[in-house]
Amino acid sequence: MRWGGGRESENVEDRRSDGGGGMGRGIAGGGIGVVVIAVVAMFLGVDPSLVMSVLEGTQPGAQPGISAPAQKPPAHDTQAKFVSVVLADTEDTWRTLFQKGGAQYREPKLVLFRGAVQSACGRAQAAMGPFYCPGDEKVYIDLAFFDDLQKRFKAPGDFAQAYVIAHEIGHHVQNLLGISEKVHSARQRLSETEYNQLSVRLELQADCLSGIWAHHADRSRKILESGDVEEALGAASAVGDDRMQMQARGYVTPESFSHGSSEQRARWFRRGLDSGEFAQCDTFKARTL
Asked: Which of 83, 86, 168, 226 would you label with 32, given CA atoms 20 to 30 Å apart?
């Protein structure tokens, strides 16, 4: 991926030195916590509050506790700089696309943390993977996830990492458009299986939106190099529900999918990449995923 020399975003908060937002009650300790973490570990999630409410006994939407003031990443931190450049590129892309649609894009913050972090959605552990919290409109990433993406999930490459960031920004776009709220508000009237199916559509749309970013960013700024698309497709496949469940427990239960299969995630990313059109990312109207 051609990212050197790109504009860096002003919206990166570095909380890696604040001690994890206070360790308090942890997720580790056996029982349901171990089972849930085994399943959700490294998912690319939209809102961890429901998982955290089970593991920590908190209520979804709980307000964050006090944490150290956010800092800017140090200038010599190459990995943080990469994240900042990718974030800036998503800002440029979505700002332009929103303007074309007669709307204004509100830029999210991206928080770098280590181990655990406090958000408006509750306290999250790094084992849950990167996530977007609609309550504070922030993306949270422990950069150690990128090492796991390469070593554990066999999805190396800088564009694989860019896909992860773009997916979470896709959730921000959904939030701005009111799509996320409609999905979450439907939870109370749906069974768990029905809500999981709706969640899959939300996640696959975020994959498609990340492809839209890549499409327009490459047309405008020529960011893609040979092999980049394959890196992103590999990352999307690596975090499919079927592959994650098989790795965690040795069998797959499709009715419990909440993010989509490996094949679905890769296909919807590719759909956004090839078309660059939001209309092609309407997973909620799609007869087949």
From this structure: 168
DSSP 83-126: HHHHHHHHHHHHHHHHHHTT--PPPPEEEE-SSEEEETTEEEEG
Round to the nearest angstrom and report the end-to-end CA distance of the chain. 29
The torsion of the CA quartet 55, 63, 178, 275, rounded to 10 degrees, works out to -60
Helix, strand, coil abundance in the chain, percent, nearest 5: 55, 10, 40
Task: Give pLDDT tens digits for 25-83.
Answer: 222 223 323 333 333 433 444 444 444 433 333 334 444 444 455 688 887 889 999 99
Q: Please give the pLDDT value at position 43.
A: 42
pTM higher than the cut 0.85: no
* Domain enclosing residue 194, as ranges: 12-281
Report the chain's mean pLDDT, rounded to a whole number: 83
Cα 214 to Cα 252: distance, rounded to the nearest angstrom: 31
Which of helix, strand or coil describes residue 274? Answer: helix
Q: How many structural domains compose the chain?
A: 1
Evaluate whether 138 touches 108 at the Cβ level (below 8 Å): yes
Write b or e for each residue in 145-169: b if 16 or more Cβ atoms lie within 10 A of its Cβ, otherwise e: bbebbbeebebebbbbbbbbbbbbb
| Separation CA 24–CA 89 (nearest Å) | 36
242 to 238, 255, 256: CA distances (angstroms): 9, 11, 10
List C-alpha distances in Å: 174 to 5, 10, 179: 29, 22, 5
Closest by alpha carbon to 209, among 107, 82, 94? 94
In a domain, 260, yes or no: yes
| Residue 177, in any domain of the structure | yes
Phi, psi of 193 (to 5 degrees): -65, -45
Dihedral angle computed from the Cα positions of residues 266, 270, 276 and 280, in that order, rounded to the nearest 10 degrees: -70
